[in-house]
Amino acid sequence: MATARKVRHPAATGDKATSLVERKLQALGLREPGDFVVHLPLRYEDETRIVPIASLYAGVHAQVEGEVMHSEVQFRPRRQLHATLRDDSGELALRWLNFYPSQQKQMEPGRRLRVRGEVRHGFHGAEMVHPRVSVAGLPLPEALTPVYPTTDGLTQASLRKAIDQALQTADLSDTLPDDICSRYGLMPFGQAIRMLHHPPATVSYADLIERGHPAWSRIKFDELLAQQLSLAAARAARRRQRAKPLAVAQGDLVQGLRNSLPFALTAAQQRCIDEIASDLGRSFPMHRLLQGDVGSGKTIVAAFAAAQAISSGCQVAIMAPTEILAEQHFQKLVGWLEPLGVQVAWLTGSLTPKARRLAAEAIASGHAQLVVGTQALIQDKVQFADLGLAILDEQHRFGVGQRLQLSRKGEHEANTGGLIPHQLNMSATPIPRTLAMTFFADLDVSVIDELPPGRSPVLTKLISDTRRDDVLGSVVTEVRLGRQAYWVCPLVEESEALQLQTAVDTHARLAAALPDLRVGLIHGKLAPAQKQEVMQAFRDGQTDLLVATTVIEVGVDVPNASLMIIEHAERFGLAQLHQLRGRVGRGSQQSICVLMYQAPLSAIARQRLRAMYETSDGFDIARRDLALRGPGEFLGVRQSGQALLRFADLETDALIVEQAQEALQELRKRYPDHAKAHLQRWMRNRQDYLRS
């Protein structure tokens, strides 16, 4: 069984100053021998054999030997080094776009060389551009050559040398007991690691590249098990923490809220309210995810949680990723809770210095019982008197570190005696099953799986932008029926300024094409007061068509809007398209979402648009999005700099996920030392991010 050892890696030593190589290795997270051995190859190159030139074809990586027949520097169209290599079967062109005098000398005619690279179709047949060159006749390696993830300035040769040194000194003993390895048919860890770093040429190249080899299965199992152990440890640690129990008394604020609502709660909403209420009444911190499709009514569920916390004497913070969404929450919560005597504060970065100071004072004094805002809530200057509940909406839109910062606002010993605030995460992006089993395994999950009554399903249409006039006609028709429409401008990933210009141009073009309509414009660069004015005019029916960027992606609720046009829909992600579609269908009338695209479509864009056309089920959309993009967008860790799963794939390795979950409890109960060693090997210094 492996034990945690503090051993300096041979490649990471220096007399007085840290070497350049060591700094590069540390940038990859490689410090101790154990780090190096689990830094596994991305792919492999087969340098174990020489192939005839005549057998080469475009796209293959190959190694050949031959005699240099011709070499010259050409200056058209630019300075390049050209050479021809011949063996008994044929000739191969070689080309360097950038080269040194030593390379030119190396290509002298008559020399016998070994070259390796990717074969391309050139003007005169097969060619290699910037191949690797060595002297012919050297002994061939007996194993495939690994190609590792690296960083600028760190060569594969340096990385291979460091990893090979680590393999000599690292503890490769097994962290899993024999009975678990036997039950799941797992290859011994040391054998799997050595095989993946130095696979013999007899191993199936396809199995290695596609990660189907038993050695890869062992590594995936280990990684998934370590992740599960970390989450289980995080859950257990949270159970050992203390939080203020937020009890509900009959006839209090919660009951007042229930009595004042102008609508009936759905059964799913009531179930989620009860689950959260039960958690809040415990003496350890709640860590619950509330998920529901767009329009399912998560805000009112959050309002009941806030009411329970406030009636127990605590403050509540609700943080949203955009000012428009935060403002929408603020308006709703003010309408529901202020008549019941709750003081609601508003805090965003766009407030004037005086307004920010007054809000901060109200928060610090405890006068503000409920605080709604954006990332401004986690600024150092903002201090809560007694934060008992933190609510994050669209939690995956925040970085992991930001989520931790809000939680820590309630952890000051002086204010709370060491109590930890309860935390409720909300998401309109349903979590696919495999993701829930892995990254969200430590969370309690509440699901709003029904829409409020009166909502109509949205009809989705795919229309080429060559039919723009037909789309304009649909806008006029909807407006004549007394309804309203959104026109979402294309996403310009390269530049926010370009997207803004696109929105301005689109607004001008539509206003000219539809002179009888009142056309509004909203985008992220408008001042908050202007945004609020534009949105209020749209809500009040004073605007017929609202041209918008993706600032309206989440939270905007205008029941009379029945038509959504998304221009250049092929540029948007699947989850984003689904969120935008959710801005309509909030009233009783039939609503339509037009995905206007420009041909030709890429394969991924075609899959996204097909998914949007085929289903409106948020869970199915989420499953397909996970398959297309991986888990990063669901988790909101792109800003954290932390790796997700390096080796396992949630879509294709679902069986290994289930096996790791089965082994989890047994390892923790029967083999705690093995569990500790396993975590040390795979999850060094990364567990803290799992608490968020």
Automatic annotation (TrEMBL):
Coiled coil: 650-677
Catalysed reaction equations from the record: ATP + H2O = ADP + phosphate + H(+); Couples ATP hydrolysis with the unwinding of duplex DNA by translocating in the 3'-5' direction
All copies of domain Helicase C-terminal, residue ranges: 458-627
Domain of life: Bacteria
Pfam family, one: Helicase_C
Presence of the UniProt keyword DNA damage in the record: yes
Residue span(s) of domain Helicase ATP-binding: 279-448
Documented EC number(s): 5.6.2.4
Listed CDD domains: DEXHc_RecG, RecG_wedge_OBF, SF2_C_RecG
Gene Ontology molecular-function annotations: 3'-5' DNA helicase activity; ATP binding; ATP hydrolysis activity; DNA binding
GO biological process, one term: DNA repair
Keyword tags: ATP-binding, Coiled coil, DNA damage, DNA recombination, DNA repair, DNA-binding, Helicase, Hydrolase, Isomerase, Nucleotide-binding
Enzyme class, UniProt record, top EC level: isomerase
Function: Plays a critical role in recombination and DNA repair. Helps process Holliday junction intermediates to mature products by catalyzing branch migration. Has replication fork regression activity, unwinds stalled or blocked replication forks to make a HJ that can be resolved. Has a DNA unwinding activity characteristic of a DNA helicase with 3'-5' polarity.
Family: Belongs to the helicase family. RecG subfamily.
Alphabetized PANTHER family for the sequence: ATP-DEPENDENT DNA HELICASE HOMOLOG RECG, CHLOROPLASTIC
Protein name: ATP-dependent DNA helicase RecG
Species of the source: Pollutimonas thiosulfatoxidans
